[in-house]
Amino acid sequence: MKIITVFISMFIFPMMAYAQPQIMFDEEAYDMGELTQEIAMHSFKFKNVGSSELILEKPVPS
Predict the structure, then answer these.
(1) Would the pTM of this model clear 0.85, i.e. be above it?
(2) Pick from 14, 11, 20: which is nearest to 52 by CA?
(3) What are the Cα distances from residue 50, in Å, to 24, 30, 37, 44, 58?
């Protein structure tokens, strides 16, 4: 049993520490030019290229 505990603490826990989400955008900026209307919209596409789950909490448009 001690061998299993030592194995877990030496190999499994450090591997879990390196698992991180990483967000990657297709484009980081967008120029809307001169606006002639009050409402303008654009969508930014992104994906998680990291090795763990990416959680977006309380996204706020600017």
Answers:
(1) no
(2) 20
(3) 9, 24, 38, 18, 20
